[in-house]
Amino acid sequence: MLELFAPPLPTFVAGGEMTYRPGQCHPDRRDIGVFDLLIVMSGRLCLGEQAQPYEVAAGQFLFLYPAGRHYPTRPCTEDTRFYWFHFLAPGGWQHIDGGGGKKKREGEAASFVR
Fold first, then answer.
1. Do the beta carbons of residue 98 and residue 1 sit within 8 Å?
2. Contact 18, 84 (CB under 8 A)
3. Other CB atoms closer than 10 Å to residue 71's CB: what's the count?
4. What are residue 70's phi and psi, to 5 degrees?
5. 68 CB contacts (<8 Å, ≥6 apart)?
6. How many CB atoms lie within 10 A of CB 49?
7. Cβ distance 106 to 93 under 8 Å?
8. Cα–Cα distance list, 64 to 50, 59, 77, 109 (Å)
9. pTM for the full model?
10. Distance CA 9, CA 91 (A)
11. In Å, what is the CA distance from 24 to each residue of 7, 27, 60?
12. 39 vs 60: CA distance, rounded Å
């Protein structure tokens, strides 16, 4: 589970709408410096982050972390439309393991570099 510390509230950096056709996939990226929220409206987006694969179907969303690598696990097999939002967490953040409540990763406020 992602926990964002506030105040201050998360800061919006950029966003948009994207449609991938069959055969297209999300780019392979590393340490982008911002959170990436993906909201799938139709189709299925297949990607992974830090060796964890995800299939994000219509009506689902996924948060990707600012550090580490996220990458395609396979190309889209149908038209896939989604919204993407990049944002910062200037108050800091942590990832909590749902099983035991232990902190797995945490971050400080980051500045947008790219």
1. yes
2. yes
3. 16
4. -125, 145
5. 30, 31, 49, 50
6. 18
7. yes
8. 10, 17, 22, 16
9. 0.83
10. 7
11. 38, 9, 19
12. 6
Q: Which two tokens stand for residue 34?
A: 């911002």
Q: Contact, 111 vs 33, CB < 8 A?
A: yes
The helix, strand and coil proportions of the chain, stated in percent and rounded to the nearest 5, come to: 0, 55, 45
Rounded to the nearest 5°, which phi and psi values hold at 79? -55, 130
- State which amino acid sits at residue 19: T
Q: How many residues does the chain have?
A: 114
Tracing tokens 């990436």 back to the chain, one arrives at 36
For the stretch 60-114, pLDDT in tens is: 999 999 988 999 999 999 999 999 999 999 999 988 876 655 454 455 443 332 2
| Residue whose tokens read 């993407």 | 84
Question: Token pair 């909201």 is at which residue?
Answer: 39
Q: How far apart (Å, rounded) are the C-alpha atoms in residues 44 and 20?
A: 10
Q: What does the alpha-carbon distance between residue 94 and residue 4 come to, in Å, rounded to a whole number? A: 7
